[in-house]
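Good morning,

Attaching, inline, the backbone tokens for the sequence recovery test we're adding to the shared suite. The designed sequence is right after.
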């Protein structure tokens, strides 16, 4: 039995889609905060169990009979370490044979603020004594593709990444990697640094948007504080604006780059190039 936490999230749903290609639905459990929001998964034959990171008692029930658990990191910044602590404890009580965790690319050395909670979680995992595999995910291409409509409207792609190289990949690529690890043997103790095959700067991304759209888009590099202020002016909540600005400044320091190609090796195909992410965003818009 393979249990996927956060299964109604964008990554979780894709992981289940991948697992269903090789595993019967009867072997999969979608552990979700609100089962009523996962009826589409139930319709596929996947078992639904409530698993609220803030309600530890639900985790024991959710993990009953689990052989493997994928802990998809919580999206509640500032609360994640305690939430993950509860998941790890429940997995230990369930005596799971493998706990996979979606961490951050080079979490142990990452200059991104996001790395703090991931490092703390990795430490908890190391202390747990559980068989653990770390999926250190790089940046999702969708994170930048989401800003393409605004970039076209203003003919400007703003950021604070400087000339930092970004080796992003699609959520589907990272989901395929998680599914591959969950279905392979001898994964305990492994650490995967997962990133896209090809890297780009935001200047190059602006040029790609220009090429495909026919609208000239320039990259505007801003100091971190100014970029955060711009994002807040655009309507993003302060914590999200701060996160994105910090991540961009981390990219300027190499925090979103990796050339090891472990992701494509794991999934057995090339990762999605940023040009395809741009094309998808333009067709959707």
């Amino acid at each position: 039995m393979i249990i996927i936490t956060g299964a109604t999230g964008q990554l979780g749903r894709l992981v289940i889609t991948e697992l269903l290609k090789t595993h019967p639905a009867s072997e999969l459990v979608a552990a979700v905060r609100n089962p009523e929001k996962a009826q589409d998964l139930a319709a596929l034959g996947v078992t639904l169990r409530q698993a609220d990171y803030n309600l530890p008692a639900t985790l024991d029930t959710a993990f009953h009979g689990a052989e493997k658990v994928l802990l998809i990191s919580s999206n509640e910044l500032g609360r994640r370490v305690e939430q993950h602590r509860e998941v790890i404890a429940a997995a230990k009580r369930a005596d799971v044979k493998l706990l996979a965790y979606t961490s951050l690319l080079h979490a142990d050395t990452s200059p991104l603020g996001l790395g703090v909670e991931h490092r703390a979680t990795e430490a908890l995992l190391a202390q747990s004594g559980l068989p653990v595999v770390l999926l250190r995910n790089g940046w999702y291409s969708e994170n930048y593709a989401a800003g393409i409509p605004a970039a076209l409207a203003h003919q400007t792609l703003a950021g604070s990444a400087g000339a930092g190289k970004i080796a992003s990949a699609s959520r589907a690529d990272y989901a395929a990697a998680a599914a591959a690890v969950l279905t392979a043997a001898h994964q305990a103790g492994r650490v995967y640094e997962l990133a896209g095959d090809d890297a780009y700067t935001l200047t190059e991304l602006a040029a790609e948007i220009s090429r495909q759209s026919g609208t000239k888009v320039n990259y505007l590099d801003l100091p971190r504080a100014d970029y955060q202020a711009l994002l807040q002016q655009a309507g993003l909540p302060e914590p999200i604006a701060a996160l994105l600005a910090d991540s961009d400044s981390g990219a300027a320091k190499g925090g979103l780059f990796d050339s090891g190609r472990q992701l494509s090796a794991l999934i057995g195909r090339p990762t999605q190039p940023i040009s395809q992410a741009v094309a998808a965003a333009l067709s959707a818009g």
